[in-house]
Predict the structure.
Amino acid sequence: NLSLFPPVRPPKKTSPKKPPTKQQAAMAEEQMEEASSSAAASGTPFQLQFDKPIPFQIKLAEWNPEKDLLAMVTDDSKVLLHRFNWQRLWTISPGKCITSICWSPDGKIVALGTEDGFVLLHDVENGKMLRSIKSHDVAIICLNWAEDEPLSRTDKEDLLSYEDRTTRFFPPAPVMPRIGGLNSGDTGLADENEEAIQAFSSASCQRFNILCTGDKDGCICFSIFGIFPIGKININKVPIHVQSSGKRTSYRLQDVSISKQVSLSRNLHQLVLLCSGKLINTDNLSLSNDLSVGVHCLHLDTSIFSNRKNELHQVSQQASSIQDLVEVVRASISMMSKQWSNAMNLFHEKFSALPSLLTAHGMESSSEDEFMSLLFGTHTSPALHQFLVSSLGEAGLKRIAKTIESAGRELRIVVSEHLQPAVEIISFRLAELRGLARWRSRFQNIGLDEKLMDGVTERVGMLVVQVERFSRVAATVLYLFQNFLSWVLKCVKILLSEPTDQVPSTNSELVVIFLKFLLDKDPIKQLLETDQIFEWDIDTAKHVEHLVVFGGFTDTKFLERSLAKQFSELEESLKEAFLMPFTTVSSQIHCQGLLPLYPVTSSDALSSTSTPASIAFYKDKDSQHNASSYSSTDYICFKIPDGSLNLRNFVAVIKDFCNSCSTSNTPSLSGFLLHIPVEYECVDLSLYKDNQVVLLLSGKSSSENAGRSWMVMLQTENLSFSQFSRTFPANYYNLQELEALELQLDTDYGKVRSVPHPLSTPLAVSASRGVACI
Amino acid sequence: QNLRLSSHVLSDFGTDGLSIANDNGSFSTSWLRNLSDASSSWHSSSTKPRKLITNDFDNFHFHAQPSPIPTSVLQLAGSAYLMRATAWEHYGSAPMVRMNTLVYATCFADAASSSELSLAYVKLIEQLAVFKGYSAAFCALKLAEEKFPSSTNSQIHLLKMQLLHERALHRGHLRIAQQICDEFGVLSSSVSGVDIELKTEASLRRARTLLAAKQFSQAAAVANSLFTTCYKYNMQVENASVLLLLAEIHRKSDNAVLGLPYALASQSFCKSFNLDLLEASATLTLAELWLALGSNHAKRALSLVYQSLPMILGHGGLELRARSQIVLAKCHLTDPEFSVSEDPCAVLDPLNQAAEDLQVLEYHEMAAEVYYLKAMTYNHLGKEYEREEAAARFKEHVTALENPRDEEDSLVY
């Protein structure tokens, strides 16, 4: 028996105009008062702050956990960020259909899940995309970003804290090279972006946090800091063991679709999720029936995250910045290759006119011969004369010289500002990781493998050699080009009988070398391509083999590879090395328990994902803070679809599901059902701090209450939870056992406010700020 | 910062006044060299099954054309790598030392001066001795001596003596160790203020030899005078290591309380100079000192060991690693709240790892300690067969230590 607040008087509107059309959704922000505040006495629970018409339909909305910021996703997948005073900060259109949204625990990053399986991380400051990570193949339905509670830190862990030495010995990590390099005029935009990325990698890695992403097909991925993938679990393949009367039965879920809700507890110990699917008995396949298709609540044991959080934090801190730097190296190589081939294209385009001119003049000599004879002063053939003076000309020559010079400058900048520092920091960080890998008792069980790390360290050493080789070849080639082009310029001036005192002096020996080896070859390009195998002489081979005795690289064939090839080998071995923690951690996530909630017929299985539901963990008030851990209670609140379980218009609240899974001897699982008055339907619901439930009720269009809606907040403590047994698998769904309470909008158990608009999803409540947006 | 800038010397070559026209005939020489090689190589390369590409400017290819970059520039660029390797030795990142030295030895060997190249080899051999044991190091040393005859190259000679001394200390051949120490003393000039580095090294080694011979007061006296010298000449790295040695001397002479201030001073010295590896070993010594003060300090010692472990395991040599594993096991064993039967792995794993490392190092004294601890643990666990085995190994090492039979071997390698 439930009594609620008396109906309150209609709220004062701060905005006089009502939304004129149905397309315009009304957004109202309401201040939720503390449960026992004076507002209740004055008769107005939920103080209305704003009531603004907006021109789009809102699909998703989420409050920033730290600041009064509201992120919203519209139906056409634009993302808006509003302040509490309704000032809009930014709007972005990622160009993809967005299916889920959540904030990072520090409120600095908003994570978006897209229909094609990408997670996009955007900066709260300006909406710039920081990362785009493809972790799923299908739409990401739910995101949950949980951070380790600082309260659970103890003295012991502080001593185990690990210092990342990189900042002490290295300048800030290099960023991706930009096209245009230093001479580009518009530095503004790109600079900001770089700073953002920089800030992202340094600031967001201070505290250990994990982003869980769940997709439509039942895969859940975990990534540390939202960027370093650390685990993946497919609900379709997870064995579910159920103990019933001493017998152990294995089940499996089929055709899983994760509903909107996945929640990782704040101590990172357990994960609760709602999903729909068909439950099949793997021991006896014939036992499954129609009833087995339904919405189930699963409890996954993720204690590996909390037990090994220090180790995971250290590894992911190093590994994620290594991955960033690998991207920098990749970008540097591709950019150098692009810049250089552009310059070379121009050079070859201009100089290819000479052979055709030679044939036109009926001469059989090559361009090399012609230049040679020009160099040694024997004669200037008419073809060469024509080429130098008219088809190339002084202006053309200067253009080539300028292009090659600027390409060379780009190359130098990229090598010295991006490539070399990036490779150096990668090798330092890998060395640190290798040290961690040697601490077998701590790091082996999260999959940091010593052998693999050794292999990667070896590869990165070879890459440093390759970078050195490349920079030397590049310096030589550029110098020769410079020398050759000024010689040609001098020749042109002489042919035109112009003074040559402006032209720098040249070395004729180097011109010969250029003519013989560079006119139709491109050694820089060779090093930047992956499919080249280089010849190298016996002396060098001996030298390298000799070095093995002194502890050199055991793979003596590395000089055959090009820079790009060596880099791709490094990438491969890095991937392999980082896959180990991923698979090791994934294999340690188990299913702890299953609770079938309600059956669904296959026809409305699709719509089940949109059924309102909310899962939250609350810290136990009575749990004593014994340093290492604290217990938390999970609350699961969801609407039962009409017709299922022969119930209509019911909302169920269940608590202590996790604890009932782990300790089977004390059945603490309890809950209640709440019957919504028939003339209303529950549009959305959410759990709110300290065990409260917020419901949005909208009048049914058929009833006289159409257009009138209510926002209700219930104190679950005031409601009677009744225990119910988990008789599964004997009886699938036993939610009916629960006491059904009648929700009356005129009694005194919670707070109620009427809203003069028809309501639709979403309801966004913010526990830290005490605000809701409907 | 400066070292990083120095690597720009190569990439910036040719952009500004760096380009010098060198017509000193070096080009003609390399042309001639290539000419003689060319005829034979044409034949051999054409028969190779794979399609190979020649890069005419690659310094690893012998057809490579003479480079316009003068040798002096290359030497400058190369010594940046050697400097980096040395810097990392102090800052404590072993893989970085190896990598930078290898880059030097691979890429700059053709342009390097013999003293710098031999320095690179010395660094590589030192790494081998610390991480792979003496047999690998002496094997490499032989090759290096062929390359750089030791009569002309003092660095290689010095390295040989260092390695021999370390090995003699580890094997317990104190007479030989003393002999090498004396040789060290002779190497340096007798004028004061000259050859300071050599002199400090000699007295450091003398103090260590005395310590190994359990002549504590003499060792402390040598170390104290050494500290004064280092302080006078502002040798900070040596300062820190001498302080650590003093702490060690006090620990071994059962004066843990006296050792504590030295270890703490060394630790804070290292902190201010970013000498991370030395700091980690100072922390380890500190843990040992606390442990020596009684079992009620085991918890504190354990946390100190945990603090230093990532650094030591990642960058420390075999000896340091083994020492830290032993201290870890000892911390557990002395902790009154710890019970071996509940978690035998916590003690046995580190001990096994330490035994493995010490085997390579031929360090009898510490190996004996490991097997003693192992035997004790197995005794607690009631595993008699394993206990007997460990005890037998313990005895082996103790006899080897007490009766240095083949002492003359120590000079042979």
